[in-house]
């Protein structure tokens, strides 16, 4: 089964530096099949019969053992990622994939968290939660957005990692190959 691993905080700034060839080698040695990486920020497509939660836990363990880092890892099956793209609740307005992001969460965010996030949104920004994913549209750029900063921070009630729309669709293409 093809699955996508989404690692939180890999190669962002000076910390948590892992070379993608080393990561591919480590995961291949761990027994995962067809290991491919996308970009330098902890996006990996693998074949595994483990459940997504088991796969994420195993990947986290192998990163800890191989690189000495405690990295949050989320996994989605190719089918789950296809559903994220199919739903695309902001397709009518999110015209620039660099300003459109999906935050993948470890669990469905509760109403209190969603209200806190909504309160942070600038008037031009949009936020839609569907299951374990939070779609965010930042037409003025995510770099200055308080909402985007909160979604990528550690104060969330769930573990989350964010990818822009271009990366989401590229990962889906890789998972389907």
- Look at the helices and sheets and give the structural class: alpha+beta
User: Unreliable segments (pLDDT under 50, ≥5 consecutive)?
Assistant: none
Q: Percent range for helical residues?
A: 25-40%
Give the rounded overall mean pLDDT.
92
Percent strand:
15-25%
Order of helices and strands: EHEEHEHEHEEHEH
Q: What's the shape?
A: globular
The helix tally amounts to 6
**What is the strand tally?**
8
Distance between the termini: 12 Å
Radius of gyration: 16 Å
Largest sheet: 4 strands, antiparallel
Strand arrangement, major sheet: 2-3-1-4
What is the element layout, followed by pairings?
Elements: E1 2-7, H1 20-29, E2 33-38, E3 43-47, H2 52-67, E4 73-77, H3 78-87, E5 100-105, H4 111-120, E6 126-130, E7 133-137, H5 146-152, E8 160-164, H6 165-176
Antiparallel strand pairs: 1-3, 1-4, 2-3, 5-7, 5-8, 6-7
Structure report:
The chain has 177 residues and is of the alpha+beta class. It has helices at 20-29, 52-67, 78-87, 111-120, 146-152, 165-176; strands at 2-7, 33-38, 43-47, 73-77, 100-105, 126-130, 133-137, 160-164. The protein has a four-stranded antiparallel beta sheet, sandwiched between helices. A four-stranded antiparallel beta sheet has the order 6-7-5-8. The protein is globular and about 50 Å long. The chain starts with a strand and ends with a helix.
